[in-house]
Design brief:
This protein has a single domain, classed as Rossmann fold (3-Layer(aba) Sandwich), CATH 3.40.50.300. It has a 7-stranded mixed sheet, covered by helices on one side. 23% of the residues lie in helices and 26% in strands. The chain is of the alpha/beta class. It has 4 helices and 7 strands.
């Protein structure tokens, strides 16, 4: 599925479309260059899932946990700064990936061999139209 997003105002609808397309999936891998909008889109997803915490980038902490209004957990990973795969082992990635909770992964290419089968790939690309993004999932 491909969708064009013309502004951040459209992200809630895009988040709804992604969640509806994969109702039984819980691991989502976000691909895109620096500044493509991965964190912004993950924030929209978390809000649509009822996050009561304010989502933000886990660039330095690698993982953030957000609680929802139903008491569920959402996990947001940013593997940009890891240097070795062992760092993902050190944070206990498998506990999160196999928890049944939503996991949103930025820079998944850094840990591609650890991503479980059935992980949903979300690609975000800038378009020729400034500020627009193409989402593919």
């Amino acid at each position: 599925m491909e969708m064009i997003c013309r502004s951040t105002d459209e992200l809630a609808g895009l988040a709804d479309a992604l969640l509806a397309a994969y109702p039984d999936r819980r691991i989502f891998a976000f691909y895109g260059g620096m500044g493509a909008g991965k964190t912004t889109f993950i924030t929209a997803l978390c809000k649509r899932l009822g996050a009561i915490d304010e989502p933000n980038s886990p660039t330095f902490s690698i993982i953030n946990q957000y609680l929802t209004n139903t008491g569920d957990s959402l996990y947001h990973f940013d593997f940009y700064r890891i240097k070795k795969l062992e760092e993902a082992y050190d944070i206990g990635y498998e506990h999160y990936f196999f928890s049944g909770d939503y996991c949103f992964v930025e820079w998944p290419e850094k840990i591609s061999e650890l991503l479980p089968p059935g992980c949903v790939e979300v690609k975000i690309e800038e378009t020729a139209q400034q500020g627009w993004r193409k989402f593919t999932f």
